[in-house]
Amino acid sequence: MSEHEHGGPGAAVKLGYGIAITAVVLAIEVAGGILSNSLALLSDAGHVFTDGVALLLSWYAVRQAERPSSSRMTFGYHRVGVIIAIVNSVSIVVIAGVILYEAYQRFFERPEINGGMMLAVAVVGLAANIFVASWLHREQGRSINIKSAFWHALGDALASVGVIAGAIIIMLTKLFWVDAVVSVLISLIILFAAWGIFREGLRILLEAVPADIRVSEVVKALKVIPEVRDVHDLHVWSISSNLNAMSSHVVIDDCSVSQAENIRRRIEETLREKFGIGHTTVQFECNQCAENGLFCKMEPDDNDQNKPGD
Asked: What are residue 62's phi and psi, to 5 degrees?
């Protein structure tokens, strides 16, 4: 196995600082939302709360992913992070539902809102979320967990921009219904991020072919290797968000072990360089496969992938 899904010690430290900053922002926004009577600010505080939970769970998942493989957990603990990311996405949907319900009520009640306080608190929240998101940006490509936490922070930064715009409009026009509109926009941002995270996590748990890999292209690439006569019983899946695996039966001519070793090395290099597949299991055979062998007589097909959640 050449790759592992974790952000390293740096990611764990950054997540830890992010948790502390998020806790401070949460306290400020809850107090500011109550004092200013702003649902948009309270809804943003709700999103900040999910940020804190996401960061805490992501920190835990990163630490779990660093645990070494064992005889009972031969692939390590990478799937812990995927499960936590899915839980995060579901929690986001719940929070978004609560915000939408409260926004609906506000369209009828339209209470008076302190726009000045709403603006000041939102600016603090925006600064903090930009700081956390920028910290996690470099790490988020390595793990679905850190990606989840990054989008939590970025989504909340965007929500803070909406709250700031709403506060300015309220201060200038006294149109208090703008507060409810901003809350709805925040909810839509939250739901969009949640769906992407949930779909990616579901694909990994179902061991679907990674979205950026086509099985027919993998077969074609392997058959280009001169010694490879045929490929069948091929499976491609993800262990975690950036650790892809493949197993396959490969038909070659009868040869020595050292020659087979060279063929195996070229297969692994091809899969790693062209498809980012870092864990490969190959079973060599000298006989042709049966006619019903999976992908034995496979032809290229643009629709060879089933995408759960699409």
From this structure: -60, -45
Among 181, 205, 229, give the residue marking a domain's end.
Answer: 205
| Judgement on whether residues 213 and 173 belong to the same structural domain of the protein | no
Range(s) of the domain holding residue 45: 8-205
Q: How many Å apart are CA 147 and CA 253, to the nearest integer?
A: 45
Domain count, the chain: 2
pLDDT confidence bin for 3, thresholds 50/70/90 = very low
Cα dihedral 255/261/263/269 (nearest 10) = 180
Please tell me whether residues 79 and 174 are part of one structural domain: yes
Task: Taking residues 101-116, report their average pLDDT.
Answer: 76
Q: For residues 68 and 282, which has the higher predicted lDDT (pLDDT)?
A: 282
**Distance between CA atoms of residues 11 and 54, nearest Å:** 14
Q: How far apart are CA 54 and CA 48, in angstroms?
A: 10
| Cβ contact 216:301 at 8 Å | yes
Q: What is the dihedral of CA 199, 201, 203, 204, to 10 degrees?
A: 170
pTM summary value: 0.62
CA distance 227 to 86: 43
Same domain? 28 vs 141: yes
Residue at which a domain ends, from 205, 236, 268: 205
| CATH number of 254's domain | 3.30.70.1350
